[in-house]
Design a protein that fits this description.
about 70 residues, mainly alpha
């Protein structure tokens, strides 16, 4: 019975210590979000249009496996 009381007292003391340690940790909910950043306007240079595609290309005659 003596050891049972010591074990229970130790367990209760550990529980109280862990509960108090968790209560004093900073919470993420209490922190304010950072202020929004100012939008930066980036000017894009004008690109010339791409050249037209050559639709009249022939097939590839150098394929593997072709006799």
């Amino acid at each position: 019975m003596k050891y049972l009381k010591q074990i229970l007292a130790t367990a209760i003391a550990l529980f109280v210590l862990t509960a108090s340690a968790m209560a004093f940790e900073p919470q993420k909910k209490d922190q304010k979000p950072p202020p929004p950043k100012d939008e930066k306007k980036v000017e894009k240079p004008e690109k010339p249009p791409p050249p037209p595609r050559d639709t009249n290309r022939g097939g590839n005659d150098n394929r593997r496996g072709k006799p």
